[in-house]
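Person: Show me a sequence?

Helper:
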Amino acid sequence: MKDLTDPRWIKFKGILFVVLGLFSAALLLVEHPTVRTAVLLAISIWSFSRAYYFAFYVLEKYVDPQFRFSVLSFASRYLWKGTRSGER
């Protein structure tokens, strides 16, 4: 599969992610319309967003500037074992 490089399609893909997230959150809240569900959903979204930021920005900029990766599994391995992918 070819890499996505057209800025219009990249923006469209980002918009689709937002629409999908809003739609799934709305369906969840319609099915369970409680304050508790809304708060737990908000905390989950915020937590996973921060974890993603940590994995792709904080590790690279502050923990190990030489470490670059494109998949979360490489970051997980780095955090768990303290080694980069391919190192022993």
